[in-house]
Amino acid sequence: MAPRSNAATAAPTDAASLPTRAVGSPSTRASVLFRDITGRKRAADALRASEERYSLAMEASEEGYIDVNVDTDEFVTSERLNEIFGIAPGTRFKGRSDFLNQFRFYGNDGETYRQAIRAIGADGGPDRYEFEFRIVRPSGEVRWLWTRGKVTRDAEGRARRRVGVFADITARERTEGELRDSEARFRALTELSSDWYWRQDENLRF
């Protein structure tokens, strides 16, 4: 009969070896300390699962996200965010400046972005933010982006962490621009003659 194993129910542990030597003895002994890290491992597994669910949710919504540690300048991005900005997959950044060097702002939108970030980072600044801006991808393509996020502050109101999402709204802006152009042309036509008027029936026919 094969010996039974308790590996399936064994609690995860870590160990530390502490060398000791008795007074007057040339030999050294090692004392090993075992600690039950079940709680820590469960917390790490739960965090990893939560991050995976969040990542899947972001992919489903086609939004990218950033997580910024203001104190250390650690700058973490999702793959979808890199895609939105036209940055190569798998790219990691040393900090915010490294990220900003990957693309250009369109026109004066860089100042719009910097002013918003300064306001967010100021002591006692807003806890939430939302704004739009345009970028020029490394390929030269212009894209219109929208971002929204939340700032975590300490008791003194200093920003410690910033988490945000980004979405590419270029298609929406183009559609709205085309609609505005169409309405402008319509107004110009009707203004050509004060005798013109338009009537629509219940089927929206002129």
Write the layout of secondary structure elements.
Layout: E1 13-20, E2 29-36, H1 38-61, E3 64-69, E4 74-77, H2 79-84, H3 96-100, E5 104-105, H4 109-121, E6 128-136, E7 142-153, E8 159-168, H5 170-190
Antiparallel strand pairs: 1-2, 3-4, 3-8, 5-6, 6-7, 7-8
Can you walk me through this structure?
With 206 residues, this protein is an alpha+beta fold. The chain contains five helices and eight strands; from the N terminus they run ββαββααβαβββα. It has helices spanning 38-61, 79-84, 96-100, 109-121, 170-190, and strands at 13-20, 29-36, 64-69, 74-77, 104-105, 128-136, 142-153, 159-168. The protein has a six-stranded antiparallel sheet. A hairpin with a 5-residue loop joins strand 7 (142-153) and strand 8 (159-168). The longest helix is centred in the N-terminal third of the chain and has 24 residues, at 38-61. The protein is elongated.
Approximate helicity band: 25-40%
* Beta-strand percent range: 25-35%
Shape: elongated
Provide the low-confidence segments as ranges.
none
- What is the topology, as strand order, of the major beta sheet? 4-3-8-7-6-5
Mean pLDDT score, rounded?
A: 78
List the helices and strands in order: EEHEEHHEHEEEH
Structural class: alpha+beta
DSSP summary, beta strand count: 8
Distance between the termini: 91 Å
Largest sheet: 6 strands, antiparallel
Question: How many helix segments?
Answer: 5
Q: Supply Rg.
A: 29 Å
